[in-house]
Design brief:
4 strands, four-stranded antiparallel beta sheet, single chain, 86 residues, alpha+beta
């Protein structure tokens, strides 16, 4: 019985690790929807989302210029330079 439980626990760990790795850099779909609506209302064309440095990085285009906007987890925009810690 204990052996089966141990094997089951190991299997769950082994299977969940690749999923966690695959989601690195991903931003939750609900957060993407909320930010997209906000940014489109401000005149931006939203291109891509990425989680980086503990923040949400959003690639947008406005008036033909590509920009990177940074947001905290509570969706407040912050100034941030690439590679800078929060």
């Amino acid at each position: 019985m204990i052996r089966k439980m141990t094997l089951a626990a190991l299997a769950m760990t082994a299977l969940s690790a690749p999923m966690a790795m695959a989601s690195e850099g991903a931003v939750d779909a609900a957060v993407q929807e909320k930010l997209t609506a906000q940014l489109v209302a401000e005149g931006y064309d939203v291109r891509q989302f990425k989680a980086e440095d503990g923040l949400i990085e959003v690639y947008v285009v406005k008036d033909g210029d590509m920009e990177e906007l940074w947001f905290t987890a509570d969706l407040k925009q912050v100034a941030h330079e690439e590679g800078e810690d929060e």
